[in-house]
Design brief:
The chain is mainly alpha-helical. It is flat. Helix 2 crosses helix 4. It has four helices and no strands. The N terminus is likely disordered.
């Protein structure tokens, strides 16, 4: 990890956190939601720290800005999802 340490709080890659949620559950959910938001596979993989495979290794060279744009797209989608759910749960 490049000599840096970080805390996952109550989550651990080795075991379940609160209510049985694991670190990989969170990663899987984020990757699925990024797909739903329209973030392409290469950028999902780069953001989540996965290695590029197949021809992507040779032909895909994401710039430093590409993951930032992909995260902005994901964040906008996620904000929209959260806002629509809040609206749906309002009592009139």
């Amino acid at each position: 990890m490049n000599g840096r340490s970080f805390s996952l709080g109550p989550f651990s890659p080795a075991g379940p956190g609160p209510e049985g949620v694991t670190f990989h559950d969170i990663r899987r959910t984020v990757k699925t939601n990024m797909l739903n938001a329209g973030v392409d596979q290469v950028h999902r993989d780069v953001i989540l720290g996965h290695t590029l495979h197949g021809m992507d290794v040779h032909y895909m060279a994401p710039s430093i800005e590409d993951p930032h744009r992909a995260m902005a797209k994901y964040t906008a989608w996620l904000d929209g999802e959260l806002n629509s759910r809040q609206e749906a749960n309002k009592i009139f």
